[in-house]
Amino acid sequence: MNYKTRLLPLFLFVTLAQSLARVVQGVVYSHDGQGPRMRLVRDPDPRTVAIELWRELHLSAADAAALADELRALLHRFESRTPKARRRYLIHAAIAPANYRSAALAKAE
Q: Which residue has the higher pLDDT, 87 or 33?
């Protein structure tokens, strides 16, 4: 693994945070007679597509393999239609067995 590949997770973290920060323009505080309220003011026309999705799924080994195959196929499909002249996006997809057990997760179940 070269240095550029090692820096990609950090680069993704920073650019994702910057993109998501641009979507939120501020916060509006008010009182509706029952208590204080807070509302995020979002950019009505965000120019950047940025999402971060995390899920803990309960899958069989076959379903996990099928999901990995679908993620691979999805990225390959978009990779094959990407001309050089368009904007670049950094994509990360991962799946791994969750070999951890925290007290917080145990309480949530």
A: 33
What is the reported pLDDT for 19?
Answer: 73
Q: Is the dihedral of CA 66, 94, 56, 12 positive or negative?
A: negative
CA angle 46, 49, 55 (to 5 degrees): 125
**Rounded-to-integer distance, Cα 93 and Cα 68, Å:** 9
Question: Taking 90 as the threshold, does the pLDDT of residue 86 lie above it?
Answer: no
pLDDT digits (tens, 9 = 90+) for 57-67: 999 999 999 99
Residues 91 and 49 sit within 8 Å (Cβ to Cβ): no
Task: Single out the residue of 73, 57, 21 nearest to residue 93, CA to CA.
Answer: 73
Instruction: Give the integer Cα–Cα distance in Å for 90 and 10.
Output: 11
- Residues in the chain, how many? 109
Contact in structure between 26 and 41 (CB atoms under 8 Å): yes
Structure confidence at residue 65 (pLDDT):
95
